[in-house]
Design a protein that fits this description.
Length: 230
């Protein structure tokens, strides 16, 4: 279900948009039509927010990008806010699943951290508009959305430290230090996306690994591990 929304299709003026349903009687099931329309709306709000920012993106911009009517939009969502949160959570869940799947083959915690971060960068590199949606837009979109963003960042920290050896858990930095850590990583991604280099986000992996591991392993060991395989 998520792949058409998460991946940007190549070529044409409708790059990254889902194909429209055929007009008239098409014999498609109600479930298929509903899924297609919700995916189109998700794709539409991602595109509209990436282009205009959350505050300036209107429902008409979302429906135009999605290729659906306002009536269809309001069939599924009561407001732009509701649509934003639904799509934000969908992207966050997709990133969580991708990171967990990437980490599964590894036993050592630092390797799992690198695999998780690499998977997230790969998703964002495939469609940098996702990074614009979940990292750039929320802090500028008002307190309610910014609060959901901060909650998501807390969840990322929990997942990154999952499986940490007991001897490292005792080095767990303060809450403010962890917020600075995750904020620094997000800032690196944002800077590269805003510079138009979203397709090259994988280049950030060594820096993100070093940033994440340094509070636990110490800088020298974190740097050595992060630079392996460059």
């Amino acid at each position: 279900m998520l792949a058409p929304v998460m991946e940007r299709e190549k070529g044409g003026d409708d790059e990254g948009r889902l194909s429209r349903l055929p007009p008239g009687r098409h014999g498609l099931s109600r479930e298929f039509v509903s899924q297609n329309q919700r995916e189109r709306i998700a794709s539409g709000i991602i595109a509209a927010v990436a282009e205009r920012g959350y505050r300036d993106a209107k429902v008409s911009d979302i429906t135009a990008a999605a290729g659906v009517s306002r009536r269809t939009f309001y069939t599924y969502f009561a407001s732009k806010d509701e649509c934003f949160f639904d799509t934000f959570d969908m992207i966050a869940n997709h990133l969580r699943l991708a990171a967990a799947a990437a980490a599964e083959p590894y036993e050592r915690w630092p390797e799992r951290v690198r695999a998780r971060l690499g998977a997230v960068l790969d998703v964002f590199a495939t469609n940098p508009d996702l990074a614009r949606y979940v990292l750039i837009a929320p802090p500028r979109a008002g307190e309610e959305i910014a609060a959901r963003y901060r909650q998501a960042m807390d969840e990322v920290l929990v997942e990154l430290t999952e499986g940490m050896p007991p001897e490292l858990a005792g080095k767990d930095p303060s809450r403010s230090a962890k917020h600075a850590l995750i904020g620094g990583g997000a800032a690196l991604v944002v800077r590269k996306v805003e510079a138009g280099e979203g397709a090259d986000l994988r280049d950030l992996l060594p820096d993100l690994v070093e940033l994440t591991l340094t509070p636990f392993l110490g800088r020298d060991e974190a740097v050595e591990f992060a630079r392996k395989g460059e």
